[in-house]
Amino acid sequence: MSKEEMIREMKKRVCAANLKLPEYGLVTLTWGNVAEVNREIGVIVIKPSGVPYETMTPEDMVVTDLEGNVLEKESLRPSSDLPTDVVLFREFPEIIGITHTHSVQGVAWAQAGRDVPVYGTTHADNFYGCIPCTRDLTQEEVEEAYEENTGKVIVETFRDRKIDPIAVPGVLVRNHGTFSWGNSAMKSVEVGKVIETVCEMAERTENLRRQAGEPIPQHYLDKHYYRKHGKNAYYGQK
Amino acid sequence: MSKEEMIREMKKRVCAANLKLPEYGLVTLTWGNVAEVNREIGVIVIKPSGVPYETMTPEDMVVTDLEGNVLEKESLRPSSDLPTDVVLFREFPEIIGITHTHSVQGVAWAQAGRDVPVYGTTHADNFYGCIPCTRDLTQEEVEEAYEENTGKVIVETFRDRKIDPIAVPGVLVRNHGTFSWGNSAMKSVEVGKVIETVCEMAERTENLRRQAGEPIPQHYLDKHYYRKHGKNAYYGQK
Amino acid sequence: MSKEEMIREMKKRVCAANLKLPEYGLVTLTWGNVAEVNREIGVIVIKPSGVPYETMTPEDMVVTDLEGNVLEKESLRPSSDLPTDVVLFREFPEIIGITHTHSVQGVAWAQAGRDVPVYGTTHADNFYGCIPCTRDLTQEEVEEAYEENTGKVIVETFRDRKIDPIAVPGVLVRNHGTFSWGNSAMKSVEVGKVIETVCEMAERTENLRRQAGEPIPQHYLDKHYYRKHGKNAYYGQK
Amino acid sequence: MSKEEMIREMKKRVCAANLKLPEYGLVTLTWGNVAEVNREIGVIVIKPSGVPYETMTPEDMVVTDLEGNVLEKESLRPSSDLPTDVVLFREFPEIIGITHTHSVQGVAWAQAGRDVPVYGTTHADNFYGCIPCTRDLTQEEVEEAYEENTGKVIVETFRDRKIDPIAVPGVLVRNHGTFSWGNSAMKSVEVGKVIETVCEMAERTENLRRQAGEPIPQHYLDKHYYRKHGKNAYYGQK
User: Fold this and answer.
1) What is the mean pLDDT of chain D?
2) Pairing of strands C177-182, D177-182
3) Do D237 and A48 touch (CB under 8 A)?
4) Annotated catalytic, A65?
5) Contact B110, B176 (CB under 8 A)
């Protein structure tokens, strides 16, 4: 396949993944975006900034290089969160797709500044450990290069806390929203939906416990995560 | 009807029941599944594992024997929860259909590790007593045969607490989700929807009471359950 | 118009009003029902018991006399709540339509056993005072004539507390659900939707106040209710 | 364009904006309305009072002068909230469209009598500061000219607290509901949707914090607001 054809296919996939955001109830108005990288041909494809989902087409998708420089002349502006994705695609070399949302349940946890504890097997099926919440950026970090530093503070969170971004494919950016990722644009949207669902379950769980909750036993976490992931997984089709 | 025709009809019913799960808002992504048994011909039909609801057809349904061994050569893999259903179909001989979900409200109660108290007549119309929550499985039970032992811990809950699985047609598996059942695949899905609704009502009731709530009087429970169930029932068409 | 034609029109209106229940999100499965009375011709038309909304037609509606005796030979069984409606149509002579639901927000307040306080103008636009919650029925009342006594306890609530059923067109039956009414079947459904909305607003209001809330000032209640009701109303078309 | 053509276009825009209210989940039944002003030709176009959204057409929109006097002979009655809009259009000369709703989350905060604190960047993207809640109107204000005085108390809130209605394009009217505005009818509806979303996020945030929350740091508020607004904005298309 030629590079042009590959980019055309990426645009279709990225557009389809972006259109899943409203279908899954993850976005309000034009908020949220999905991006996909192809490191071999040096290309990122991302949703344009502030364009309504109702009328979005694959042709509207924005093509940039791996530093986020727009490559096509007649391009719309890329999502303003692109510099965050550039950092994540560079620092987490295994991930192909990234989704960013301001989904309600995820934002509530981000605004509370809290990691989402592993309260059940729905969480454990998808995340091997809590969904971490980053620290706030400093005033300097915000003023200097806000979106790029958002990516850096995500990376810092995973490095400092020794979290594997493959086993924990998403994060809450404090006071802001969610970033999730996976081995395709669509997969990153599905993880975004998982975060939203798990966040609502966790809030209701605490409400029903009326006290700080305990996470599930470790052996549950191991079982549920590894029956869906890794070489001994037995969920889904071969 | 030949055995082949009976299986073909079962596949249609099981597929239709599975498609009710997203319609009723009980599933996220590919989570959840429905199964039906025919003990005379020794067959269980169940949803395949990890297949999207949008494209699911009756032909995708998986046929197994009563021990859960796949019977058709070209079969997809069955839902990973099949061994749980095998135990329930064996130990609860009156039930024909089983539904498993990770529905949000049900999971919240399961993660809180709490029985759902009988707070009103909506509950009493459908469950003659609280919706029980099982204990956690031990590490040994999880490692040995997780899904089968999930079935066993459900059965243990009903046996030890002397609960009749016909009068109480569902359960919360601690930290996990819901199982519900009935005299058809579709009926088990409807009970799943009842659990979800009753769980939300109960959480809101407690929120409004701001204290541990009292269940409804026993005579209410008797009246509402028995006007819908048993030989003196007068709800619905004859 | 002949009596037959009048009944045919009633069946159409009652069916259309019943179909609004799922559209407004007020029912789960087959729960809930709407009835309409015509006192001149001595007829009540009501939803049949336990019939799914998806396939319901005007012909399915059940015709009874003012005591609730079924009038047509080939009739389905009427909703089991009919005896409640018979009492309300008899004791509240100004009302024409009645809706009964197990809608989630209304049930939560009913299960909490609480009147819904007048917390805002949305409430005041529609109810001149709190939405009352009845007492529980006694064991004797439940065993003797449950549905009829449900109607009687509603009437008792309005009589004893000197509430005008025109100014307060609905009630929570303790531990059970909502009844609402109006000058047509459709109007009673709309009031059911109002109750559901106002109940959710009130729960969230208390949650945000984190303490027992105060109702709005009396002059607000007067203004909002009377700008929509009575001879000086100026909301809506003439 | 002739004045007649301009009014015809306004009617289309105002009708389309009103129809977004049910699509965005901001209204129940016939509640809520949107208006647009053209100060050059001295015209306000607003939704008629109490008309169902399902059948609404541009021709139903009501045309008034800047004092709210109906200009067309065959007109329906304007929304009863028109006198509020008249005050806002007069006192806030930069705004073109106004939306009023009784949306659930917004009403909950209005009924709690609380400003919505800036808990995150979703809020900061759209409002440069908390969403203010007005005081209650006095009995005299309600009896004298309720809707006009509602407009005046909104203006008073912004004047006394030195809030810029461009930077903070909406308000909660205590015990009542939301008003939002913008440089078009449609934009005011979008701000109404933002208020609803931000209100839900904020309630859940407090629930998760279990204590009075702290707003986000000031440098976050500055960054997020100004990357979307003002001469250095870089969100959206040029």
Assistant:
1) 92
2) unpaired
3) yes
4) no
5) yes
Average pLDDT value for chain C: 92
Q: Which two tokens stand for residue C56?
A: 């319901």
Q: Nearest 5 degrees, angle CA B23-CA B26-CA B29?
A: 85
pTM, entire model: 0.91
From the list A85, A125, A128, A225, the catalytic residue is A125
Split at pLDDT 50, 70, 90, the class of C130 is very high
8 Å CB contact between B53 and B29: no
Per the domain annotation, does B180 fall within a domain? Answer: yes
Tokens 């590490």 found at? B139
Q: Two tokens at C132?
A: 């009352």
The number of distinct structural domains making up chain A is 1
Higher pLDDT: C125 or A44? It is A44
**Percent with pLDDT over 70 in chain B:** 92
Q: How far apart are CA C146 and CA A73, in angstroms?
A: 75
Contacts of C211 (CB under 8 A, 6+ apart): none
Closest CA to A114 of C40, C48, D119, D148: D119
Tell me the pLDDT tens digit for each residue of B154-170: 999 999 999 999 999 99
Residue D78 pairs in a beta bridge with D48
Q: Which of C28, C70, C144, C175 is best to mutate for the B interface (most B CBs within 10 A)?
A: C175
Q: Which residues of D are catalytic, by number?
A: 125, 235
Residue B221 predicted with pLDDT over 70: no
- Cα Rg, chain C, nearest whole Å: 18
DSSP C82-129: HHHHHHHHHH-TT--EEEEE--HHHHHHHHHT--B---SHHHHTT-SS
List, in order, residues 6 or more apart from D63 with CB less than 8 Å away: D7, D10, D11, D43, D44, D45, D70, D71, D72, D75
Dist. CA C121–CA C221, nearest whole Å: 7
Could you tell me the sign of the dihedral formed by the alpha carbons of D51, D56, D60, D64, in that order?
positive
State how far Cα D95 lies from the chain centre. Answer: 10
Is D85 within the bounds of a domain?
A: yes
What is the rounded CA–CA span in Å between residue D23 and residue D8? 23
Query: Closest by alpha carbon to A28, among A194, A181, A196?
Result: A196
- The verdict on residue B176 lying in a domain is yes
Quick check: D220 and D124 in contact, CB under 8 A?
A: yes
Residue A237 lies in a domain: no
Supply B234's token pair.
């007068």
Residue B200 belongs to domain spanning: 3-227
* pLDDT average, residue stretch A28-41: 96
Smallest Cβ distance to C50: which of B119, B197, B235?
Answer: B235
CA of D226, closest CA in chain A: separation in Å? 11
Q: Output the domain CATH number for residue C68.
A: 3.40.225.10
